[in-house]
Amino acid sequence: MTVTQLPGRRTEGPAAIHPGSTEARRPIVLLGDELDCLHALRSHPDITVATRGERTHGHPLAAVIQIDLSSVENRTDLKARLRAQIPICTNTCEQTPSIQRLLLIIDGPPGVPESVMHRMCDATADRLHRHIEQRCGTYIILTILLVTGCDNPSLLAHRTRHRALQAQGIDATSTLTWKEIAQRPIGHTAANHYS
């Protein structure tokens, strides 16, 4: 058995996944609000769906957190709701130290320009990544996907699952839009943004 050591990752105990185990067969946990555009992901055999407040079981390698901000009415509230995700995501990583990849799938408010949303999410991603490193002593790959206007839920589910299972990435944090990932896989798009 080979276990890849990431900075700050355990190679024994709960974070070491054994290939034949039940945990290895369900490597992704789906949390948060129920976004219609991710309905196709819920029934996939790689996915464990956890309800709000429920503790995750097993040793998932990735957490996909759905965030519905579509009803937020102003930028101040939007900023506050994004910042509120920092302790939620940090607690998820603390409670489930096997997580190596964290994806935040955000359905944003239609009235906020995509460029503003992108900037706010970029700032949140940087803060969140630093906070998780400091609080959990671990390195994760963090991807924020802005999926407002997603017109192909099955492709979004495929791209999200593929990113969650991706072995490694050169990008510590990425904020991408649906338009960007509709054309190319998330890993390729994130790498282009990183370089």
What is the number of independent domains? 1
Mean pLDDT: 83
Q: CATH superfamily membership, which one?
A: NAD(P)-binding Rossmann-like Domain
Please provide the count of β strands.
Answer: 6
Give the fraction of residues assigned to helices.
Answer: 40-55%
Series of secondary-structure elements, N-terminal to C-terminal: HEHEEHEHEHEHH
Secondary-structure arrangement, i.e. CATH architecture: 3-Layer(aba) Sandwich
The fold-level CATH name is Rossmann fold
Order of adjacent strands in the largest pleated sheet: 2-1-3-4-5-6
What is the rounded distance between the termini? 33 Å
Give me the Rg, rounded.
16 Å
The backbone outline, from C-alpha atoms, is globular
Proportion of residues in β-strands: 15-25%
List low-pLDDT spans.
1-24
Q: Number of helical segments? A: 7
Largest sheet: 6 strands, parallel
- Per CATH, the class reads Alpha Beta
Give the class from helix and strand content and strand pairing.
Answer: alpha/beta
Polypeptide structure, described:
With 195 residues, the protein is α/β, with parallel strands linked by helices. The protein has one domain: Rossmann fold, CATH 3.40.50.720. It has seven helices and six strands, in the order αβαββαβαβαβαα. A six-stranded parallel beta sheet has the order 2-1-3-4-5-6, sandwiched between helices. α5 links the parallel β5 and β6. α3 packs parallel to α4. The longest helix has 23 residues. The protein is globular. It starts with 21 loop residues before the first helix and ends with a helix.
